[in-house]
Amino acid sequence: MALAGPLYDRCDDSNGYLGDVFYMALTALPDLAIAAKTDPETLAEQVFVAVQDNGYGQVDGLISQMAEALGPAGLTHLKVLVKDLAKTPVPVPPKKERKVVGWAGEALAALDAATGNPRRWTEWHNTRLQVLEALGQGEAAQAQRWQQFEAVLSAEDLRAYLKRLPDFDDIEAEDKALDYALVFEPPEMALYFLCHWPTLDHAAKLVLQLGDKLNGNDYETLTALADALSARHPLAATLALRAMITFALERARTKRYHHAARHLLECESLSAQIEDYGGHADHAAYLAALKQAHGRKASFWERVEG
Fold first, then answer.
1. Distance between CA atoms of 64 and 218, rounded to whole angstroms?
2. Of 70, 72, 153, 226, which cross-links 193 as Cys (Cβ 3.0–4.6 Å)?
3. Does the model's pTM come out above 0.85?
4. In a domain, 92, yes or no
5. Which of 161, 181, 201 is the last residue of a domain?
6. Are 78 and 70 in contact (CB under 8 A)?
7. What is the dihedral angle through the alpha carbons of 220, 185, 201, 29, rounded to the nearest 10 degrees?
8. C-alpha to C-alpha distances, 121 to 13, 114, 117, 147, 245, nearest whole angstrom
9. Do 204 and 275 have their domain in common?
10. Cα gap 49→57, rounded to integer Å
11. Boundary residue ending a domain (55, 87, 119)
């Protein structure tokens, strides 16, 4: 988690990948703290330091998540630390470093008139959000966040958007966003987003929708999906694995045969959990079709049988 700030400073996270990684790390902290039996006051001090350096929202909700691990003693100590901080005078930055809100209107006009390299879009987007917030135009900032989500399925912008909504409104908005992802083009981006949000039920639904249209070359996302879906959605996991197998064999990607053979064995293992293939070939039929179409690819079958 300490790496979050420096990485955000140096990376373009328009696809939300970093946000997903650090969000998953954040949610793992409570169990780790409990298992480590960290001293409550020490843990409170660590939480206190973390929440003071939250420029990218990487530790949003940390205190509530750590409440159980902190316990009464840790929460009391944290409260004392916060109260002491509140009594500390706020340092006044040098005049040349102060933000002058009166300039914000001019900045917004300049941003809206800007044209140029589309690779700078993320920088433009983030800067415009800051200007809108400085002008008190929260609704406009929210509209821009939602627009960015709709354009590229930005997990970072969706989280920021949901965080600013009232209770219960955020649930409805998240449902709307996930349904939108199910019809997003290209589907590879949607699968990546749903896998890493994460919302496995929606990811499984999209895999089943795509079926034979899954892009087997999207092996990084499909491998992660197959692994994540195998417990609760074995058919969807199987279709993801089959897509990679079929792609490797049809394109004669010999370097992938080792992985494809492993995927086929995983399909066989998953078949025991699947009662209804929903119109797709069962494992025996799929295996027979595979042998008929690619039976001469000896290097693949040697790996399967070996």
1. 37
2. 153
3. no
4. no
5. 181
6. yes
7. 60
8. 11, 10, 8, 13, 37
9. yes
10. 14
11. 87
